[in-house]
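Checklist before submission:
- one chain only
- standard amino acids only
- sequence pasted in full

Submission:
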Amino acid sequence: MKFKVGIMNYLLILLLVSLAVSALGWVYFIYFFSLGYGFGISALAIAIAVIFRDVLTIPTALLCLVMFIFGMRLGLYLATREKRSAEYKKILYGPDASKKKPLFVVITVWIFCALLYVGQVSPVAFYLANAADGVAVNELWAWIGAGLMALGVMLESVADAQKKAAKKINHNRYVDTGLYRIVRCPNYLGELVIWTGSLVVCIGASCSVWQWIIAAIGYIGIVYVMFSGARRLELRQAVTYGNDPEFQEYIKKTPILLPFVPIYTLIKYEWLKA
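Returned file contents:
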């Protein structure tokens, strides 16, 4: 099946928006994955809402709004963390950060990130593009997607707030209260819920094979990033808290990312190394 020209044009516009905001990574390489990600998703949400303003409905407007809120909250949270966290400043301004990356690597990462972010929001764009072309869409799935995305944003926001509060009480202790009693990376879990909500929108969008492929690639990409991030956190915590018997007990009984799924470690999965 072939794309309609209109859909290809929409995707190109979204890619240009994503490239423009992701270009923050040219300032500091890590911004490709942090500020460029958060603010990039917000910019894409605005772009989708503007492009398809004539066919926006309440649930699709909510989808765009939730994506915008997610991106802005994440971007501002990371920007604030940069100002306050000594560890994050080390990442940005330390010896490793000062090493200049090869131009080919920078360009490749820039394009990859921009494509990934477009893939993540593509189900909402496809839903609206198909509706604009007169294709029958099922609004129920837009409502379900918006609900899941809102739930994910709440999970991520609460997890970040609980971690911040716990670290104020004891900065040198791992967090095992609140949502962290259920999983060790509840903020990553929230993000998985967000993008699962985006993907299910495709079910009601009468997507073509190629649309499903793009949406699936975007979803698989962010799932990989979340599991990879959870693995990196596990490695850092093993160094910091590895000799703490209470921490060892905590990680033995608390899943790392998915609640009630008995996956307690990701270290052995080398393919998650990124």
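Reviewer check: The chain has one domain: 5-272.
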